From TrEMBL:
Residues 858-867 have a biased composition (Basic and acidic residues). GO terms for biological process: DNA synthesis involved in DNA repair; double-strand break repair. It holds the Pfam family AAA_21. Gene3D superfamilies: P-loop containing nucleotide triphosphate hydrolases. This is DNA replication and repair protein RecF. Residues 827-867 are annotated as: Disordered. Residues 538-697 form the ATPase AAA-type core domain. InterPro entries: ATPase_AAA_core (IPR003959), P-loop_NTPase (IPR027417). GO terms for molecular function: ATP binding; ATP hydrolysis activity.
Length: 867
C-alpha cells in the first residue's frame, strides 16, 4: 500500500470520527504538532458537541490538506521562486532559479536561506512548516508575506502566488521535503527510535491529543462535585413543585421549572385573595361582611376605570402625537404667514391678515351673512355694495382688496393650517381637562388600602407619577417647549384592580352562600400550590443551577467517550501492518546500502502498538536490547533518517521534485560524500533541490554530480544593504572550479582596466593586486583539478589512485610555466611588501590580461590529456 493510500485511508476513516478529532487531524497534517492553544480550541469543539461550550466552527481533514501524489501524474518540477515582500529579512524581488536535475542553493549564516525554505515548506504543505515573520527589526511595519512560485507539471507551466494567508496550492503538495522536522518523524526520540512514515505518526499524536483532552475534561468535571445542591425550604408536600424538584436529574425539564417559577404580581394577589377567602369561611356575620365587600368592589371598579382612562390619556403615543400636532400647526402657520406676507404686506394697515384681523373678518362675515347681504356670498363687491363695517360704498380698489382677502382665507394652505390648529387644540384641551386625582379617587384609594395595602401602594404611586407626567406635558405646552424627554413612567396593569374586583365579588357571593367544607378544602389546595410556586420563584436560580450541574456531569461523561483511543489503535495497527512492515523494511535496507551504512547493522522491525500507533523501530541486529541512539552518532542518525525518507519515496511512482533543507551538518562530515552521491543519483530520476550552508557538502555535490554526468545548477545567497537572500548565479570563490575562476578574474580585470583608463592609478593598482592574489589561488586550484587530475583534492578524504596513471604525461614545460606563474603572482599579491630599492614598475593592464590568459592557455593545453 503506497503512502498516498495511507493518507487517503486515514482521510476516509476520519469521516467516522468526532468533529474535534477530524479537526485535530487537519492541524497535525498542516502543522505537525498541536500547541496549547490548539488543544484549548479542540476542547471547545468537543465540549460544544455536548452543550458544554458555545458552538464554534471546526474544519475537518480534507483532500486539499493532503500532500498530493499519484503514479499516473506527470512529475512536478520547480522553475523559480521569487520573493516579493514580507518574509523575514529577505530583500525584495529576488529570484531563485532551479535546474531540472540537481540545484544547490548555498548561503552562509544569516544569508537568507531559511527564509526561502520557509516559503517553500509552507507552499508545499510540508510537515512542521514554521510560522513566517516579517523583518521585525525595521522601523516600519513589515509588509504582508508574498512570493511567486513557477513550476511545470509535465509540459504545462503554472504559477502560484503565495501569501501567508492560509491559501495554498494542491499541486505543490506533491513536493516531498526533508528537514530537521521531517527527520524527527523518522527518528522520533533519542531513547526509542520509532519509524513512522508520513501519515502513520498521526495516530499516536491523535492519541496524545485524546489523553490531553481527557485530562482537561476530567479537571473541569471534578469542579462540578462541590456541594451545590439547592435546598428549597417550606415547599408544601404533594404539590406540583414538590413532585418536580424532589428528584432532579440531568433529564429534568428546565422549562417546566421556569413555567412553575413564573410568579407574577397577579399570582401574588391571587394568593392573598385565596387566603382572605379562606379566612372568610370563619366570618361571624357573613351577610354584613358581604355588604362591606360590595361597597369596596364598586369603588375599586371605579378606580379600575379611572386608571384605564388616565393611562390611555398619558401614553407615550398620545404625548408624541400631541407635540407632533403642535409642530405641524407651527409649520403650517409659517407657510400661512409667508403667504399672508406676500398677499398683505403692501396693505395700508399693518398686521393685515393677522389673528386679530381674522377675528374682525369673521365678525364682518357673520354680520353680512345674517344682516344686509344674507342672500349673497361674503364679501359682496357688486356695484353699489357697501363695506359692512364702515358702511361706505366700495371703491374698485376696496372690492379687489376684499376679494384678495377672501382668496387668502380660502386657500389650501390656510385651510390646512386651520385644520392643524383645531387638531392641536383638541389635544391641548384633552390634557387641560384631564383630572388625575380628586375626592372620589382618594376615597377609592382609601378603600383599597384596607383591602390590599400592596395594590394601594402601586396604585397611589401610579397616580402620583401620572399627575407629574400630565403636569410636565402641560408646562411644555404652555411654555411652548419641546416634548419632555425625562417624563415619569406611569403605567399600571388594569388586571391587578380587575382581579381584585372579581375577588371581592366572589368573596361576597361565597359569604352569602354560607359555609362549605369542600370549598374550604379546595381553597387550601389552591393556596398550597401557589405558595409552593412562590417559594420556587425565590429559589429558581439555585434549582436551575442544579439541573445544569447534573446535565454537565452527564455531558462530560459522554465527552469522555470521544477521548478513548481503542479505535485509533486498531486502525493504526491495521494500516501499519499492511503498509509498512514488509515494503518499507526492504526499501530501508536498500537505502542503507546506497548510503554505504554498513559498519553498524541496523534493521527496521515492528515494535508493537501503543496509544493508537503501531511502532517500527530501528534495531541493532546483534544487540536488539541496546538503544540505537546510544550507539550511532548524530551524523549516523541523520543518515538513518535520510534512508527512511528515500525508503518512503520508493513506495510511490510519483517522480516530482524533492527538497532538502540542510540534509547534513558539520557533525555529519563522515557521511557528506555518501549523502551527496545518493542525492546526485536521485537527480538522475527526478529534480532534487538542496539548500545548504556547508561549503564542503556543496563541493561534494558538485563532484558527485560531475561523476554521474548530472547537470548541476547552483545559486549563491548573500546579504547586502538591501537585505538577506540576494541571489547570484556564481558560487563563492572557494567553491568555484578553475573554469569559473578564470571567468570571474576576467570580469574583475575589466573593472580594473577601466580605473587605469580613467587615470585612477592607485585604484587600478589596488584592484590589480587583489586579482594577482586570486590568480595565484586559481593556479593552485588548477594544480589539483587539472594537472594531477583530481587524484588528491582538498576536503576530500579519499585519494583517487585509479587516476594516477594520468600523471605520467606531465612535462617539464607544464611545470616551468606553473612555477613562473606562481612566482609572478606571489610577487604582486596583497601582503607582500616590495623593497624600496627595487622600485619595479607595476604591471600594466595588458600584462595583467596576458597573465590571466596564461592560466587559460595552460589549462586548455592540459585538459585534452585528462579525458
Amino acid at each position: 500500500m503506497p503512502i498516498v493510500d495511507v493518507l487517503t485511508e486515514i482521510l476516509v476513516w476520519s469521516e467516522s470520527l468526532p468533529a474535534w478529532q477530524r479537526d485535530a487531524l487537519r492541524r497535525l497534517v498542516v502543522k505537525g504538532e498541536l500547541t496549547v492553544e490548539d488543544l484549548d480550541e479542540l476542547a471547545s469543539i468537543c465540549k460544544a458537541s455536548f452543550g458544554l461550550a458555545e458552538k464554534c466552527s471546526s474544519e475537518p481533514l480534507a483532500v486539499k490538506y493532503l500532500p498530493e501524489r499519484g503514479a499516473s501524474m506527470e512529475p512536478l518540477r520547480l522553475k523559480s521562486l521569487t520573493h516579493h515582500d514580507g518574509v523575514n529579512a529577505l530583500a525584495k524581488e529576488q529570484t531563485l532559479n532551479f535546474g531540472s536535475s540537481i540545484t544547490v542553493v548555498y548561503g552562509g549564516n544569516a544569508a537568507g536561506k531559511s527564509g526561502y525554505t520557509r516559503i517553500l515548506k509552507k507552499a508545499c504543505r510540508a510537515r512542521g512548516a514554521e510560522a513566517i515573520l516579517g523583518n521585525v527589526v525595521l522601523d516600519v511595519a513589515p509588509g504582508r508575506p508574498q512570493a511567486s512560485i513557477q513550476f511545470d507539471i509535465g509540459a504545462e507551466h503554472e504559477e502560484f502566488l503565495w501569501g501567508d494567508d492560509g491559501a495554498d496550492s494542491v499541486s505543490l503538495g506533491r513536493i516531498s521535503v526533508f528537514d530537521r522536522h521531517c527527520a524527527s518523524v523518522y527518528i522520533a526520540e533519542k531513547t526509542d527510535v520509532a519509524f513512522r512514515p508520513l501519515g502513520l505518526d498521526l495516530f499516536d499524536k491523535l492519541s496524545d491529543a485524546c489523553e490531553a483532552l481527557r485530562n482537561l475534561l476530567e479537571k473541569e468535571r471534578k469542579q462540578l462535585f462541590s456541594p451545590t445542591v439547592p435546598i428549597v425550604a417550606n415547599i408544601p408536600e404533594g404539590t406540583a413543585v414538590d413532585n418536580l424538584i424532589s428528584h432532579i436529574t440531568s433529564l429534568t425539564d428546565a422549562d417546566a421549572i421556569k413555567v412553575l417559577a413564573e410568579f407574577t404580581t397577579e399570582d401574588a394577589s391571587e394568593l392573598e385573595g385565596l387566603r382572605v377567602r379562606l379566612r372568610d369561611t370563619d366570618a361571624e356575620d357573613p351577610v354584613k361582611e358581604a355588604k362591606v365587600l360590595d361597597l369596596r368592589a364598586r369603588r375599586m371598579e371605579w378606580m379600575a376605570g379611572h386608571v384605564a382612562k388616565v393611562t390611555a390619556s398619558l401614553t407615550d403615543d398620545v404625548i408624541r402625537k400631541t407635540f407632533e400636532a403642535r409642530n405641524k400647526m407651527e409649520d403650517s402657520a409659517r407657510l400661512s404667514e409667508q403667504m399672508r406676507s406676500n398677499a398683505f404686506d403692501g396693505q395700508p394697515l399693518l398686521n393685515t391678515g393677522s389673528e386679530a384681523w381674522r377675528e374682525l373678518w369673521s365678525a364682518a362675515k357673520r354680520f353680512s351673512d345674517t344682516g344686509p347681504y344674507s342672500e349673497q356670498m361674503f364679501p359682496v363687491t357688486e356695484a353699489d355694495a357697501r363695506c359692512v363695517l364702515c358702511q361706505q360704498e366700495l371703491s374698485d380698489e376696496a372690492s379687489e382688496r376684499l376679494l384678495a382677502f377672501k382668496k387668502f382665507l380660502e386657500s389650501a394652505l390656510q385651510i390646512e393650517h386651520d385644520k392643524d390648529v383645531r387638531a392641536y387644540r383638541q389635544y391641548q384641551k384633552r390634557f387641560a381637562e384631564l383630572v388625575v386625582t380628586n375626592e372620589e379617587s382618594n376615597l377609592a384609594l382609601d378603600e383599597l388600602k384596607v383591602e390590599s395595602p400592596e395594590i394601594a401602594e402601586v396604585t397611589g404611586t401610579f397616580l402620583v407619577s401620572a399627575e407629574a407626567r400630565c403636569k410636565a406635558v402641560l408646562e411644555a405646552i404652555d411654555e411652548e417647549k419641546e416634548c419632555p424627554s425625562d417624563l415619569d413612567a406611569a403605567s399600571l396593569s388594569d388586571n391587578i384592580l380587575a382581579a381584585r374586583v372579581t375577588s371581592l365579588k366572589v368573596r361576597s357571593q361565597e359569604l352569602r352562600e354560607g359555609k362549605d367544607d369542600k370549598k374550604k378544602e379546595k381553597l387550601q389546595l389552591a393556596i398550597a400550590e401557589l405558595a409552593a410556586r412562590e417559594q420556587l420563584s425565590e429559589n429558581v436560580d439555585a434549582v436551575l443551577n442544579e439541573i445544569t450541574r447534573q446535565k454537565k456531569i452527564a455531558a462530560y461523561q459522554l465527552a469522555f467517550e470521544e477521548t478513548k483511543t481503542n479505535k485509533i489503535t486498531r486502525k493504526s495497527s491495521d494500516i501499519t501492518e499492511r503498509a509498512v512492515t514488509k515494503q518499507l523494511a526492504k526499501s530501508f535496507a536498500s537505502e542503507l546500502d546506497a548510503l554505504r551504512f554498513k559498519h553498524v547493522e541496523v534493521e527496521l522491525t515492528s515494535a508493537g502498538g501503543a496509544r493508537g500507533s503501531l511502532f517500527h523501530k530501528l534495531q541493532l541486529k546483534r544487540a536488539p536490547g541496546v538503544s540505537v541512539p546510544k550507539v550511532v552518532s548524530e551524523g549516523e542518525a541523520r543518515c538513518l533518517s535520510i534512508a527512511s525518507f528515500f525508503a518512503e519515496l520508493s513506495t510511490t511512482a510519483d517522480r516530482s521534485a524533492i527538497l532538502f533543507d540542510d540534509p547534513v551538518s558539520s557533525l555529519d562530515h563522515n557521511w557528506r560524500e555518501n549523502v551527496a552521491r545518493r542525492l546526485a543519483h536521485e537527480a538522475q530520476k527526478r529534480q532534487v533541490i538542496v539548500f545548504t550552508h556547508d561549503i564542503v557538502f556543496l563541493l561534494s555535490l558538485v563532484d558527485k554530480a560531475d561523476e554521474l554526468g548530472v547537470d548541476l545548477t547552483h545559486q549563491y545567497l548573500r546579504r547586502d544593504k538591501s537585505g538577506a537572500g540576494v541571489t547570484a548565479k556564481q558560487l563563492p570563490w572557494v567553491a568555484m572550479k578553475v573554469k569559473s575562476r578564470i571567468g570571474f578574474l576576467k570580469e574583475l580585470y575589466v573593472q580594473a582596466e577601466k580605473q587605469y583608463r580613467t587615470g585612477n592609478q592607485s585604484a587600478y593598482e589596488f584592484q590589480a593586486t587583489t586579482i594577482y592574489g586570486m590568480l595565484r589561488e586559481a593556479w593552485e586550484r588548477a594544480v589539483e583539478e587539472v594537472l594531477i587530475g583530481g587524484v588528491v583534492e582538498r576536503y576530500r578524504k579519499s585519494v583517487e589512485t585509479q587516476r594516477a596513471s594520468c600523471l605520467c604525461d606531465i612535462t617539464e614545460e607544464d611545470c616551468t610555466t606553473l612555477e613562473a606563474a606562481m612566482t609572478k603572482t606571489s610577487r604582486w599579491l596583497p601582503g607582500h611588501d616590495q623593497a624600496s630599492a627595487e622600485n619595479a614598475p607595476f604591471p600594466e593592464p595588458d600584462e595583467l590580461k596576458n597573465d590571466i590568459q596564461g592560466l587559460q592557455d595552460w589549462v586548455d593545453r592540459l585538459r585534452p590529456r585528462r579525458k
